[in-house]
Design a protein that fits this description.
There is one protein chain. The chain is of the alpha/beta class. It has 13 helices and 14 strands. It has a 5-stranded parallel beta sheet with strand order 5-6-9-10-11. A 4-stranded antiparallel beta sheet has the order 1-12-13-14. Strands 2-3-4 form a 3-stranded parallel beta sheet. The protein is globular, with a radius of gyration of 20 Å.
C-alpha cells in the first residue's frame, strides 16, 4: 500500500469512529452504519450562493442547505455578487449573512480586481484575514501586468490566486463549445484556446512569482496538458474540474438552457483527457461550480439563457455511478478529489462532519426535488445510484432525508 493510501485509510477510520461516537450519543437516530457508507464532509471550492445581490437565484441559507443535502460540509463562495467583495466592508456584508444563515462551513472569496472589472486591484491586504483566497471567477483577468501584480501581492499575504481563465478577445459571442454540435446547429462556439491560452500565461506568471495558483473548472484537453507540464516543472499549481465535464460532452447537448454553462461541455476527446487527468493526479479536485439562476433566466435556449447549472445535490451520485461503479476510479480516489485534496490545498480542516449514504438506492434525477432554488441541470431524467440519508456538521444534524 502506498503511503498516501495509508494516510487516506487512517483518515477514513477516524471518520468512521467519529460517526460511531455521534450515533452512540444520538441513539434516537437509529442508523445502522453496517448497511450504509460514511463519507467525510465533502468540500466544494467553487460555488455560487448569490447573496448578497441576487437572492432571487439562491441565498446563503438555501445554497448551504443544498450543499448539506449533497453531503458537503464546506463550500467556498465566488465573488460575483453585489456588492463585489473587493473591500473589507463589502466582504463583511457577506460574512454577516454567512454567520446568520449558513448551515455548513461557508468560506468566501474576495475579488482580485475592483468590481471584477480587471482595471484596479482590490484591497487585498485588508481582506486577507477574512477571504479564503482571491478570485475574479466569472471573468478572466485580461491584463498580464495586473495578474503578475496580483500574484506578487497574494504571495506576500500567503494567499492563493484562484483563476477563471478566459481570453475575452477569443470569445466572439460564443455560448457553447466550438465543435460539431455548434457547427451542425448553427450556434456560435467558444474555442478551447480562450481557456488554455490564459492558463498557459498564468502558469508562466506563477512560475515567475512563486505564487500559489489554482485553476477553476478546466474543460479542455490542452488545459490538462499545460497543467501537467507545469507540475512537472515544479510550479505551485492545482486545478479542478466539474462533474459534468467528466461524464458529458457536446454530443449530449440539447436545445435547452439547462445544457449551458461556462466553460461549455466540450468534445469527447476533451472529456477523455479530463478523466485521464483525475486518474493520473493532474487534476487535484472536483468542484461543482454550482451556479443557480431563476427559471426565467434558464428558459431561453442555448443562445440566450444565462450561463450556469446546479450540481451540489447530484455530485456524489453522478460521480459514484459513472466513475466508481464503472471502475474508472476507486472510492478512495473519489474521496481524495471531494474531501482531502480541496481541504489540504485551501486549508479547510475537517471537524466532526460527515454524511451517511445508501449506495444501493437508485433514483431518477428530478430537479423539482432539489432544495436549491436553482433547478437547471443537464442530468434531468438520468438514473443514478446513491442517496444521502444524513449530514452532520460540527456535531449537529444539518440534513436528514
Amino acid at each position: 500500500m502506498k503511503p498516501t493510501q495509508q494516510v487516506t485509510m487512517k483518515k477514513q477510520t477516524e471518520v468512521q469512529s467519529c460517526a460511531k461516537a455521534f450515533f452512540a450519543i444520538h441513539p434516537e437516530l437509529s442508523m445502522n452504519l453496517e448497511e450504509y457508507t460514511v463519507f467525510p464532509g465533502f468540500c466544494d471550492v467553487h460555488v455560487h450562493f448569490r447573496q448578497p445581490g441576487f437572492s432571487y437565484k439562491e441565498t446563503i441559507a438555501t445554497g448551504s442547505y443544498a450543499a448539506a443535502r449533497g453531503g458537503y460540509t464546506a463550500a467556498c463562495t465566488m465573488p460575483n455578487l453585489n456588492p463585489v467583495p473587493d473591500s473589507a466592508a463589502h466582504l463583511q456584508e457577506q460574512i454577516e449573512i454567512i454567520k446568520k444563515d449558513a448551515v455548513i462551513g461557508v468560506y468566501p472569496y474576495a475579488s482580485i480586481t475592483v468590481g471584477q472589472k480587471g482595471e484596479e486591484l482590490s484591497a487585498l491586504e485588508e481582506m486577507s484575514d477574512s477571504a479564503i483566497a482571491f478570485s475574479d471567477d466569472g471573468r478572466g483577468v485580461q491584463s498580464e501586468d495586473m495578474m503578475r501584480t496580483a500574484m506578487l501581492r497574494a504571495k506576500k499575504l500567503g494567499k492563493m490566486i484562484v483563476a477563471h481563465c478566459e481570453v475575452n478577445d477569443l470569445l466572439m459571442g460564443g455560448y457553447i463549445h466550438k465543435g460539431e454540435y455548434a457547427e451542425k446547429h448553427g450556434h456560435r462556439g467558444i474555442c478551447s484556446e480562450s481557456e488554455y491560452l490564459q492558463i498557459e500565461r498564468d502558469l508562466r506568471l506563477a512560475k515567475e512569482t512563486g505564487c500559489a495558483y489554482h485553476v477553476c473548472h478546466i474543460s479542455a484537453k490542452e488545459s490538462v496538458e499545460a497543467i501537467r507540464r507545469a507540475k512537472a516543472e515544479g510550479v505551485n499549481v492545482t486545478c479542478e474540474t466539474a462533474p459534468h465535464y467528466l461524464v458529458m460532452d457536446d454530443s449530449d447537448l440539447e436545445e435547452d438552457g439547462r445544457f449551458k454553462m461556462n466553460p461549455p461541455l466540450r468534445s469527447k476527446e476533451d472529456r477523455e483527457a479530463l478523466v485521464r487527468g483525475i486518474v493520473d493526479g493532474t487534476i487535484d479536485m472536483i468542484a461543482t461550480d454550482h451556479a443557480p439562476h431563476s427559471a426565467e433566466e434558464k428558459s431561453k435556449g442555448l443562445e440566450k439563457s444565462a450561463f450556469g447549472i446546479v450540481g451540489l445535490e447530484t455530485a456524489l451520485p453522478l460521480l459514484y455511478t459513472k466513475l466508481v461503479k464503472t471502475g474508472v476510479i476507486s472510492m478512495e480516489r473519489l474521496t481524495e478529489l471531494l474531501v482531502w485534496n480541496p481541504r489540504e490545498r485551501f486549508g479547510i480542516p475537517l471537524g466532526e462532519e460527515f454524511s451517511v449514504w445508501d449506495l444501493n438506492a437508485e433514483f431518477t434525477v428530478d430537479p423539482n426535488e432539489f432544495v436549491s432554488m436553482g433547478k437547471a441541470t443537464p442530468l434531468t431524467g438520468m438514473k443514478l445510484v446513491g442517496r444521502n440519508l444524513l449530514t452532520v456538521y460540527n456535531g449537529k444534524v444539518v440534513y436528514r432525508q
